[in-house]
Amino acid sequence: MLDCAIIGGGPAGLTAGLYATRGGLKNVTMFEMGMPGGQITQSSEIENYPGFYEHGKTGMDFMDTWQEQCFAFGLKHEMKKIERVAKIGEHFKVTFENGESVEAMTVIVCTGSTPKRTGIKGESELWGKGVSTCATCDGFFYKGKSVAVLGGGDTALEEAHYLSNICVEVNLIHRRDEFRASPSTVDRVKRTENINIITDTIIEEIEGDAMGVTGLKLKNKKTGKASNLEVPGIFIFAGHDVNNAVLKDENDEFICKMNEWGQVVVDLSMKTSISGLFAAGDMRIEAPKQVVVAAGDGATAALQVISYIQEQA
Questions:
Q1: What are phi and psi of 166, to 5 degrees?
Q2: pTM of the model
Q3: 147 shares a domain with 215
């Protein structure tokens, strides 16, 4: 039986593995289908992680040393896809895609979330090359420049306001004439002088070259008028798909408490509503979706796992 099964190999999962093994647990396995690292490995440059400031270093460079450090203390890695997690008595049953299973005293789920893509022409080709889903991560690259933001919810407007403090101009593009964001957020954005609000408009194509995004082809839905917008970057906020399938039972019901968006409800200790089950990183409620926070979540969850196991002894 495992002391702890960690599902997911991003910053939260790796850090959980590091703290759990370094904290004395002998039988800890991280289940991750591919090479560990998570979404951050797709980033072209990392500038906002404390202690890691080396111009030109990519997300892949950033995560290389994490793997070596985490595995050095005994964390095991198995490339197996997890089908589901179930609490059976005092322990957990972790079932693999092939039907096999393993028992664990505790489970930390760190499967993250995936930014939704819009399907706009050029989006996939320029993803990570001027197309971003994180203003906090990438906004600084556009300091003093004009950018575009696509979306009409709270996240889009909040990120547009964040970018307005960095960029000379923020073009907020929304397909409708009204926003879904809270009235106070909408009012704040409308009062921000360097946010240019473009409503009733869709993006037909994201244009770019080998260097990245160069501009957008726009179309007004009401008038049909086409226009071009020259920007070196666009931030897309179409929501996230939470990777929560492993927390569903055979009846497609969640085994622990979730919110309306499918995010795991946890307390400050990363505890879920199920004793011995923890969730960390981007899949939890109110996650800022930052590497430094995900790492902190993983450490917190692992420390709680150690305490939980000690209490069961």
A1: -115, -45
A2: 0.79
A3: yes
